[in-house]
Amino acid sequence: MLLVPRLGSGIPLVARTHEMRRLRAAFARAERGEAGAALLSGDAGVGKTRLLTALGEHVEACGALLLTGRCIDVREGGLPYLPFAEALAPLGSATDPAVAAAVRARPALGRLLPQGQGVEEPRPAEHPPMTSNDRETMVRPRPEQDLGQLQLFDAVLGVLTEIAEARPVVILLEDLHWADASTRNLLSFLLSRLRAQRLLVVGSYREEDVHRRHPLRGLLSELVRLATVERVDLQPFGAVDARKFVEALADEPLPPDVVGDIVTRSEGNPFFAEELLATKTECNDLPAGLAEVLLSRLERLSPDARRVARVISVANEPVMHAALAEVSGLGELELDEALREAVQHHVLVVLSDGSYTFRHALLQEAVYGDLLPGERSRTHAAYAARIKARPQGRGHDAKLAYHSMQSSDLATALPALLRAMDEAEKLGAPGSALQHVEQALSIWDAVTPADRPDGVDELKLLYEASYFAGTSGEPERAAAFARSATQALTADIPNDRAAKVWRRLADALLALEGTLDEAVAAIDRAWDLVEDTEPSSARAWVLASRAGFLRILDQPEAALDSALAAVADAQAVGATGAEASALVTLGTLADSRGDAAEARERLRQAQRKARDVGAYNTEIRATYFLALSHDDQGEFAVALDHASHGVARAEESGLSWSVYGLELRARQLMLRYLMGDWPDESAGRAGRGVSSAVAARILAIWSLFVVARGRFDEGAKLLSGLRQHWTADMQIPLSAGGAGIELAYWRGDDAGAVRQAEDLIGWLERIEPALLAGIRIAALGVSAAARLAAEARVRGDQAAAEAAVAAGERLLAHGRMCSVAGQPRSGTLGPEGRAWLARLEAAATCLTGRGDTRLWAAAAEAFGYGAVYEQAVCRWHEAEALLAADTGAGAALEAAHAVAVRLGAIPLRDAVRDLAHRARVELAGVEPAAPARTVTNPLTDRERDVLERVALGRTNRQVGEELYISEKTVSVHLSRVMAKLGASRRAEAVAIAYDRGLLTAPPRDQKVNSRD
Which of the residues 48, 283, 617, 727 has the least number of beta carbons within 10 Å of its own beta carbon? Predict the structure, then answer.
């Protein structure tokens, strides 16, 4: 008899104990406030959905809120944020007052939730539809940013965080290999910001579908580097587990040979096993290919049931009964019987909303692929006709465009694509908008002029494609589309419009490396087109952009003239956005001239004007440069106030991770590092952000905290991951490279620290010579070279000592060169540059001997403008120099120790304590460490210190230098040691001490060589 097995979800979970344990552990951590994510990978049919179903049952039993969403394969364009919209939909109709309040507080969620559910629609006056011209009033300093997208992302994160305060939240996202670009961006944003929320995100994807060029592949490689993300690989069953699974599937016992055949043919894939078992009891006649296996199961259905399956396969999404009745052409009774048969044979399943879909995506793919071309086209046309006749809500035009394209109704597809593009833009989904406009371009020539939408031409589509490519993080394609747009310009195009196109090309090229000359030529071409025209918005924007290019080209006078002209034109035509942008440029030019007062006034004007017209991007940009103006002068407290205000404004406007929102956050974090106001982990876990390069900006600064706090393994992993982003932004190697030098130094790898300093300087010199930051890099490298030389001299390795000194002198020369040839923004070397130069000169005195106490004291004072941690490091070095000069160092040690303890700077704290111990200086609040001894030790602590160094081969002079005592005092201590141990010479005293357990064995790389 024919067996119709139960669905896999109806039997106990088989052989997934390890994977389920990991997922439950992740949920347990989330319950404790340790947010996390799991990426579940596996072949199609291996059981990902079944495992997630079991996880969902577990978390709901534990009282968590379970939200589930699925991606679907729309093939062309995709539906923006579909899995998140599905997952968050229950929030819109939630009866829980706290949930409802959290949703109402975030109007941006209206882009995802069904209309009328929980979120008040913004008033038209507050958020009017954005047109292409409206975009001109928005400053987009970096192409990958988009206002609507960032507002939506912050809203999603915010609502989940707020709800999770009351109960744990678990989000299950299935089939991420079909995720559209907008969904991938939101997923990246969400996972990179998992902190202390009671939140767990689990996503599944088909491993075999994520091929080398699949857009998900790059995202996965970034996500798995996050500390909060773990990957769970779901492998096929082994033979034993596969047999258990097949036996559990069957409603009655099966002959052993049938079970064995199914196990062999399924190769451990649960879905294959289900399909083989569902076909018939004897599997010998089944074809080898999976598609044939699937279709052979379909062939067992009646003609009407097969017709229904084919109709649903074309929809490529769950289909309601009414739609099936219309598209299939079957009568109600025939349709009911066909659906019942397909459901009973587990070809289709009924979802909670009453719609029908395939039990597994592979079934849909096999059925759709088996359709004849005419059959496929007619069915797509039927769906398109239904969609045209009945509004579908969100995604209406994307669905209409898809089915119209597949049925070759290009006249309907083109306007639908353009409407879908506009909808995607309003949803903050530039990636989907780009796909729609690209499809529109692909069919443009095939649509007759009479059927093309009014007011649209190919030039407009190319311009929009360039814009959306830029805002979706594809700068190369943005430049390519912009180049094509300039090539499409004809003599009858108005100058204002042509200038806009050339400016689009200039802006797109500015985001690429090595295209500055072409970008300058493009902005010059734009200026040529409007130079002799009357003031207009286009002319004002070209002037403002041109001013920025001239400033980059180090032509301050020409940049000033262009910015002033932009202000004049903007005021004449009411283009306040262009005026505010030009004012920011004027402010930065004033700062470069050293006129801080004028710079700050200009920037405050830009702030006010931008705030008055709601130009949040420009307001935040002005705030950033205002903070930077104070930062340059060492006015850290004021700079931090401005940065914090800017971060707050960015959060209020939904632009927390916009380009200048990120810049302000990065500046705020760096200022807190310097000022000794070190935050908790949440401040630095940006991870991959709107883009991996932008996230690297934050992580590069955070690496300084990680290293300074002594988390060396974590720091090494973080720095290794950041190396690939060095070319993306100069600030990344400056922060991460410096952290790498300090990591090697604190680990005692002085040779590595010197090598990293030299490598970093060499890399920077190839990109931009004589950077002022080179002073800091050189100072760090010289300190490592000095210690390396000292250790070589102790070993008696003169050649190594000379090599270390030579390396230090090269670094010293480079640092001095940077201090002279570097170009400060204000025209003169600021407090930070002067402080690092002072530290460089002080460190240089240690290359050939003891450090100069006066220079180290001067360096410590130079950092007194507010750089608390760096000042503490200088106090530690000052104490070393003072002790070497046989001078009291208690005050310097206490000052350095207090800062290190307050900040949790473990390496500095331990270094200070070690120095104090060797110098016999007691630090406040530190109990002298009593050595752990298992035998009676007749030696005093000082005698033991001396004998330990003698055991390492030190001479009396070297022991005295390390312990800050005279050579004669060392000799006295040794005489007492030999007397107490009954030894007649040094080597014998060391041997006796080891034998009696009075000394621990030396490290393997240190040779005991006591001199007689």
Answer: 727
- Provide, rounded to the nearest whole percent, the portion of the chain with pLDDT above 90: 47
Strand 199-206: give its sheet, edge to edge.
Answer: 65-70, 169-174, 199-206, 36-42, 229-233
Task: Please list, in sequence order, all residues whose beta carbon lies within 8 angstroms of the beta carbon of residue 577, skipping any fewer than 6 positions away.
Answer: 136, 137, 138, 139, 570, 610, 613, 615, 618
Q: Once rounded to an integer, what is the mean pLDDT over residues 747-753? A: 93
Asked whether 919 and 889 are in contact (CB, 8 A), the reply is yes
58's CB contacts (< 8 A; 6+ apart) are: 24, 27
Size (the chain), residues:
1012
Query: Can you tell me the distance from the alpha carbon of 865 to that of 399, in angstroms, rounded to the nearest whole number?
Result: 61
Q: Estimate to the nearest angstrom the gap between the alpha carbon of 107 and the chain centroid.
A: 25
CA-nearest of 722, 653, 661 to 687 is 722
pTM of the model: 0.60
What does each C-alpha distance from 587 to 392, 502, 578, 592, 958 come to in angstroms? 50, 26, 14, 9, 57
Residue 1011 Rama label (left phi>0; alpha psi -120 to 50; beta): beta
188 near 176, Cβ under 8 Å? Answer: no
Sign of the torsion angle spanned by Cα atoms 806, 807, 811, 812:
negative
Residue 929's pLDDT is 55
Q: Residue 820 burial (CB < 10 Å; 0-12/13-18/19+)?
A: exposed
Q: For 253-267, 353-367, 958-972, which range has the lowest pLDDT when averaged over its residues?
A: 253-267
Tokens for 242, please give them. 């596969």
Say if residues 896 and 873 touch (Cβ distance below 8 Å). yes
Q: Which pLDDT score is estimated for 289? A: 52
pLDDT tens digits, one per residue of 403-457: 999 999 999 999 999 999 998 877 767 678 888 999 999 999 999 999 999 999 9
